[in-house]
Amino acid sequence: MTDALAGAGTVHTTREIEALIPHRWPILMVDRIVEYDEAAKRIVGIKAVTATEWWAQGHFPGLPVMPGVLQVEALAQTMAVYVAKQPGFGDRIGLFAGIDDTRFKRIVVPGDTLRLEVTMEKLGKRFGRGRGVASVDSEVACEAILSFIIPPEGVLR
What we know:
By secondary structure, the protein is of the alpha+beta class. Helix content is about 15%, strand content about 35%. It has helices spanning about 15-20, 70-85; strands at about 30-35, 40-50, 95-105, 115-125, 125-135, 140-150.
């Protein structure tokens, strides 16, 4: 770990996440990785939801609720960190192929800490799928099956 500000239990800091995936502020939705278990094909990230988020003023005025699509994006970025750590994937960019069996079960508001857990179900050279669960205080906020493709080299550049 290279960041002096990393807390106990931190596997990857924001700076280290930025070295693994291309997302940057304001769309970077994972603050740190707190668990990584390659054998179990599992990763856990954390997102501190704050009142200064770019969406908070307009969704909704006086009652900021984190959009569900951003919760799904946070899960996808957590999955992207897992994939980037696998041999042969570090410099490749995945794109959504599917978002299935998605359920939103609780609102997420500023002050909440979103726990982002992803368990990979399949990871091939050009396709992957995993189950993501976003929760607040052990209560499920969002869950989904996320699939992605990795286009051939040169397609996105």
